[in-house]
Fold this protein.
Amino acid sequence: MKPNSKYKTIFYIIVITLFIGTTLPVKSQEKSHNPSKKGSIPQKLTVKSMQSDMAILWSAIKEMHPGYNYYTSADSLQKAYNQTYSSINKPLYESEFISQIYPFICKLRCGHTQIKHSVGHKDPVGLYPAHLPFKVLATNGRVFITTHQTEVLRTGDEIISINDVVVKEIIKQGFDLYSTDGYNQTFKELFLSEYDGFEDACNKYYHWKGSYKMQIRTRQGELKDLTVDTDKIISNEPQTAPFDNYTNWTTAEKTGNLKLRFFNDSQTAYFETKPFSYEDTLTYKEAFKQIQDKKIKNLILDMRHNTGGDIRVAIQLLSYLADSPFNIIKDVRSRLQNPALNKSANYFDKDRTNGFLQGYKITNKEGLWYHVETTPAMGTVYGPLPLAKEYHFDGSLYVLIDGATFSSGALFTAALKSQCKKVKFIGRETAGGEEGCNGMVMQELTLPNTKIMIDFPWMRVESVARNPIRGRGIMPDYRVDYDPLDIVIKKDRDLEKAMELIK
């Protein structure tokens, strides 16, 4: 039966409006795949296939990537490409190839440009054997032990070196394992801490096996040399009772997975967002109805780990909070008059290309960029956009942000900062750039020889921020740092700071 064309159109629009919503990783790149099954032996990629794919990727970047020559000059990118291309001089497993080219991708300084494994990829057994019997908190250029599976370490110990490699060098290598917007480092630290990026750096760059010789600084300031024997790790980490962050809070009903809480006997509410998805719109209406019914004057809006999603849903949330009719983005631009007619078109996802053609149209050229409009199928994203007709919130707003507030989550935050007078930001610099990001159409470039895939944005999105710092995220008005014990007991220091300001 032939599919209904109306529903095909809706499918294409859904694909392209996840645009800015490429999500940050739930796991490190290598851990997202199962090890090889017995009898299935992954083969190394040839030098010719890897170099050919590097050339295709570089050609596509130069022709149309919106991050080309934006934060890193064209000359510097060319130099990085030449060095990377030359370094591919022996057969590599797919994971090794990805690790080899990621530092080059990071030079684009685009959090929406990431590398993914080929479909069905499996690493050979033992390629990355290391397991660190501890988790870490990476913050401000330092690394601390949080949970651990060895009795020789304690929560709060600072790692000075491992196997005679100073921790700053490991951090540097880890920062090259995932790309981020501009000059931001809060996401990279979060990646090392939450997504096993620190262990990945130890695996991919140092290939350590067996026990680890470590120098640590204890919480009391004592320097200690010790050996962590991985044959003697304990199976269960020491248990610490979690901190109750919601004593005296009542959880509202009818708001699904978007938690709405009211602080008992007060006029304060806490609303937790998630990456923007279609069902959220009805939840917003119910949540703000309850907020108005309870005469709430102080609203804590949690944008932490909101990695993006559908910008039209972000518009709906903003309509309850902006002071007056508002904008969420200032402009969308393309380097090509028709991005669908690029030289690498055969390697891009055809359905996403069709979605682009139905949802967007290129208009006039300004300087080196073409202006991009949306079609009725996509909907209106340029303002001024109307406020919510009912349940608008007019009180004081406290917004929690962190190094995983990204993409349309960051665009929303930047718009809120410029169009809401009673707002304060608490936490850490956002992963998404305050001035905007690359995205809108999130394409997938499949390299024909190695079959690895590249998340590849087609356009540049300019935010409505008034005085952004180039290459940096939205900065908090009140910075909050966590210590290792906070991580272990899950104490919410950001929420604590918000309540302190309200009181």
About this structure: DSSP finds 13 helices and 19 strands in the chain. The longest helix spans residues 47-64. The two ends are 63 Å apart (CA to CA). Confidence is low (pLDDT under 50) at residues 1-18, 25-39.
